[in-house]
Amino acid sequence: MRQASITIEVLISMLILFLVIATSVTTIKQLRLVQNKQEKYETDYITFLSLHDLLDDTICQDGYKEMQGQFALYSYSAKCTLVDSLRTYQKAFEIGDAEGNIGSTLVSFYKVILHIKTKNFDKTYTYNKTVTKSLL
Q1: CA distances for 58 relative to 53, 65, 84, angstroms
Q2: φ, ψ for residue 64, nearest 5 deg
């Protein structure tokens, strides 16, 4: 009777050990998958921010309304569309001039559509851009 209970105890402890090992291996595998995805998203995010900065310097200014090219592993195309353009307004502080006057700066509000594509990634982003230009 004593040997039977020892055998059952050994079998139960082996089952518990097997469950602990199986759970640990599964958890480690899932953590590695999550870590790889996080690294990929981080790389993509840094690339997109760098591309945004690159485009932000030139698009919507001096005739650059559409741009396309290659940036790292991604091919991109960007299109700039004018939404509204207004001259600045300066309020009059004199008693006789109730309306004020039009300023010497033109403020333009653009909508930029950025399309990014690679092997298994195809995404379109939209953001707004403001450009100020001196008229003097």
Answers
A1: 9, 9, 19
A2: -85, 90
Find the mean pLDDT for residues 127-133: 87
What are the CA-CA distances from residue 113 to residues 33, 110, 127, 132 (Å)?
32, 10, 7, 20
Contact predicate 66/51, CB 8 Å:
no
At 70-82, the pLDDT tens digits run 888 889 999 998 8
State the alpha helices, DSSP H only, in 1-136: 2-58
Query: Nearest-CA neighbor of 61 among 82, 76, 30, 39?
Result: 82
Instruction: Pick 60 or 11 by higher pLDDT.
Output: 11
- Render the burial of 106-136: b for 16+ CB within 10 Å, e for the rest: eebebebebebeeeeeeeeeeeebebeeeee
Residue-wise pLDDT tens digits, 50-66:
888 888 878 887 777 88
